[in-house]
Amino acid sequence: QVQLVESGGGLVQPGGSLLLSCAASGFTFSASPMSWARQAPGKGLEWVSTIYSDFSTYSTDSVKGRFTISRDNAKNTVYLQMNSLKPEDAAVYYCLIPRYGAYSTDFEARGQGTQVTVSS
Q: How much is the pLDDT for 69?
């Protein structure tokens, strides 16, 4: 069955960096778009970034220039490099198989999430 396992979250100071990883299995990873979304306490799920099978990428405006989504099809892994982190980036970050692609939080499958805390 489909499995998505995120890792790499943690506590970081404002301005710091983190690299999130999502190991995927149970489907044809190389053919699937992959997304990252996040959920802050008391808020809904927010779409962050999507990468398609052709390696084209899309990101929400608030993270452009700071976050980079990438994929390694040989490792069935999608990454989110997060730089210049801000307190408002703090959330649980989820790896998704998107149902409709970029700009949407509808998903076919979702991982368990990894916590990102940005605090001094």
A: 98
Q: Which segments of 1-120 are extended strands (E)?
A: 3-7, 10-12, 18-25, 34-39, 45-51, 57-59, 67-72, 77-82, 91-98, 107-110, 114-118
pLDDT at 85: 98
Q: How far is CA 94 from CA 42, 73, 83, 113, 120, in A?
A: 16, 19, 17, 4, 24
Q: Pull the structure tokens for residue 96.
A: 């998704």
DSSP state of 53: T
| Whole-number Å distance between alpha carbons of 40 and 111 | 16
CB within 8 Å of 11: residues ≥ 6 apart = 117, 118, 119
